[in-house]
Amino acid sequence: MKPSPAQKTKNRRLGRRHVLDVKLRTQHLRRNQLLKMTWLVLVLSLSAGAVYVVRQGGIAFWNWAVAENTYFNIQQLEIRTGGVLKPEQVREWAGVRGGLNLFQLNLSRVQRDLEMIPSIAHAEVERVLPDTLRIHVREREPIARFYHADLRSAQQTRPVCFTLDREAVFMPPLDPHQCLVPQQHRVATLPVLLGMPLGDLSPGYRVESEQVQLAVRWLAAFQASPMATRVILHAIDLGDSGKLHVTTTDKTRVTFRADSLEEQLLEWLAAQNKANEWRRRMATLDLSYTNNRPMVLQPPASALQSPTRSL
């Protein structure tokens, strides 16, 4: 049955009213969302502005009260060394001047700059309020030396004394005006490294050569052994891979292999005691063999040929 014209007109009115209601609700929701977004942006802007104002105010207060306050300017500089470097030289390397505000000074930067110096093993930098900066440096202790033309100058041909510390860190020589004690006096009794590889030398960095590492380990073991009080080292030859040829000031030459260094040093002590019993001096001792210890004694004044013995 078809709807009458009156019903069709009524349906059209109801449809239009429903569409208008939907449009009104949608517009209302959009206005609410827009209002919420506006308030959110406003609150965030005010918060950011407040944070910025507080931050800038804090910075201004810090500068006025501390960073630009002459009360905290450096008036005293306390520098303590291990007795090798001059305090004036440490101050120059640190780049610190009097009158600088303590809180404007980057302590980490000063420490890093000092520890970049090859002869300095460790540095401590601290503020002592209100006007004192305290610097303490510990110098590297050389345990061996070697001679070569000055690596810093192409014109220098005269051999220069370089040193290594316990960690095999390579150290160029210090200038006399930088030291409290001239370097030649401090290193005069150190053993000389012969056959030193020169390919990987970089001031302030560890020498990675296996032979150099072996020599450093041997020196550490030697200094902890009884032999350190019995003989004075003259030279260590690095030329034979996996071995060290050690010469003392009394012209004894002892060969060591790379393993069991402490045991070999005790064997050297035993051989030394044997030679003393015979009232003779050793000429050579080869500890590189595991089943035999050939030892040659220095000849007495009246002998023409030195005997060879095995331990």
Write the layout of secondary structure elements.
Blueprint: H1 5-67, E1 76-80, H2 87-94, H3 107-115, E2 120-128, E3 132-139, E4 142-149, E5 159-165, E6 170-171, H4 183-186, E7 192-194, H5 210-223, E8 233-237, E9 243-248, E10 253-257, H6 261-277, E11 282-286, E12 294-297, E13 308-310
Parallel strand pairs: 1-3, 7-8, 10-11
Antiparallel strand pairs: 2-3, 4-5, 5-6, 8-9, 9-10, 11-12, 12-13
Q: What does this molecule look like?
A:
With 311 residues, this protein is an alpha+beta fold. It has three domains: 68 residues; 70 residues, membrane protein fhac (Ubiquitin-like (UB roll)), CATH 3.10.20.310; 169 residues, Cell division protein FtsQ/DivIB (Rossmann fold, 3-Layer(aba) Sandwich), CATH 3.40.50.11690. Helices cover 37% and strands 23% of the residues. It is built from six helices and 13 strands. The strands form three sheets. A seven-stranded mixed sheet has the order 7-8-9-10-11-12-13. A three-stranded mixed sheet has the order 1-3-2, with helices on one face. The protein is elongated. It starts with a helix and ends with a strand. About 2% of the residues have low confidence.
